[in-house]
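Morning!

This is the sequence you dropped in the shared folder:
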Amino acid sequence: MRDKAYLMWSMLVLALSYTVSYLVLRECRDLSLYAFWLVLTLVHFAVTLIYLRGNVTWKS
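The structure's back. Tokens below.
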């Protein structure tokens, strides 16, 4: 179940990274596109770290 959830999360991030940047933010002239990519990358990185740590608690 955990692997399927991570796979679905990764597919969602991939879909969001292209659809939002090409459909919603294609005309932006400020740092909105950069901020979107930065936040999406940081969130995906954090979720990946949590996934890779598995059952290990953060306090150990």
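Headline: Residues 27 and 43 are 24 Å apart (CA to CA).

More detail when I'm at my desk.
O.
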